[in-house]
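Hi V.,

You were right to ask for the full record rather than a summary. Here it is.
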Amino acid sequence: MAGCAGGQPQTEPMISEGVQRGVASWYGPGFHGNPTANGESYDMWALTAAHRSLPFGTRVLVQSIDTGKSVTVHINDRGPFIQGRIIDLSYGAARELAMIARGTENVSLTVLESNNASSGQMSRRESDSYWVQVGSFTSLTQAVALHERLADHYPNMRLTTVDLPSGQWHRVQVGTFFSRQKAKIVAIELEKQFDLDPLLIQVN
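Predicted structure:
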């Protein structure tokens, strides 16, 4: 699907240390409800994107090089097919970057979780496993509320309960990540976008 046209100069994407840089565009109302390349219905409000080669279901951190704003999307479509553009964002994702009016944005892409370890990004080491803890509550209601708040953005979440001398605590965690670096990227993203104080948990 072709992205919305914009006036920013187009540059060829560059790849360095697992980060892809180039121009992002967006597509919106005209495609709402249409099937995407992986069979899902395109939801202009969901945080999704089209990419030419990343596996469907890959979660990508998209950050504006000019403004520093960021958003996490999952890949469910193919495109863009205009030279120099590296990703086509949904309308909802483009709103998070405040790029609707401009049409395009200079961005960097960082793969957070991929269904294919050979996608050209950092290798997955099965011996390492990390979760990002985003909250710990004595109230189960509060824990469930935070879990539901983040579930649309992070499909792989868990709510665990532990008994401590101070009482019963309900922990909300996002994962699973197979390198500390990936977990740290998500922790920073959670802190910025949701005003949380994440904690990295290594699973033995």
